[in-house]
Design goal:
This protein is α+β, with helices and mostly antiparallel strands. The chain contains six helices and five strands. Strand 2 (117-120) and strand 3 form a beta hairpin. It is globular, with a radius of gyration of 17 Å.
Length: 169
């Protein structure tokens, strides 16, 4: 017979629980608790998690695990130079439209600053600077009701960071 604790480990994770885990990981990344590579690795594991136990294991070493929602970012960056950034935008459009708009709006400033499109998937765009160990990752998540969450992070110059900050304009 299964006990309650073994049953919990087998409870399937919902999309909402996976998204909440990713948002908490993003908060940990922005706090400096995990670096970019670790963040990307954990996000990949979270998106592929099948059970709540798998999600719990991804966050087991975090000091606090509140259910607080991470709000979309706002404001326009002002500090010059290449800096780390992370943007979250909730857009009122379906994923396909947001992805096409992102390609149209973001590719020109990224290419001007030496970040060609390196990898393209239905829900991710990866831009990599060939001479610097810098990359920018843009992920798209359809939330339903014609809403799409855009998560972007990396190291980039001011012009690129401003383009991402204005993504919802």
């Amino acid at each position: 017979m299964l006990t309650r604790s073994t049953e919990c480990g087998r409870v399937l994770a919902s999309d909402r629980e996976r998204e909440a885990t990713v948002l908490r990981l993003r908060a940990a990344h922005l706090e400096g608790r995990i670096d970019t590579d670790e963040f990307e690795d954990r996000v990949g594991h979270a998106e592929g998690a099948g059970t709540r136990a798998e999600l719990d294991a991804i966050e087991a070493d975090r000091p606090e695990r509140s259910a607080a929602v991470v709000e979309p970012t706002s404001g326009v960056p002002r500090l010059p130079g290449r800096r780390h950034f992370a943007e979250r935008k909730l857009l009122n459009a379906p994923l396909d439209e947001v992805r096409e708009a992102a390609l149209t709006f973001l590719v020109p400033p990224l290419e001007r600053n030496g970040y060609p499109l390196h990898q393209e998937g239905p829900d991710v765009l990866v831009f990599t600077h060939p001479h610097r160990a810098a990359r920018i990752i843009v992920r798209f998540r359809e939330l339903g009701d014609r809403r799409t969450l855009v998560l972007a992070h990396g190291v980039a110059p001011l012009g690129v960071r401003r383009a991402f900050a204005r993504l919802d304009d």
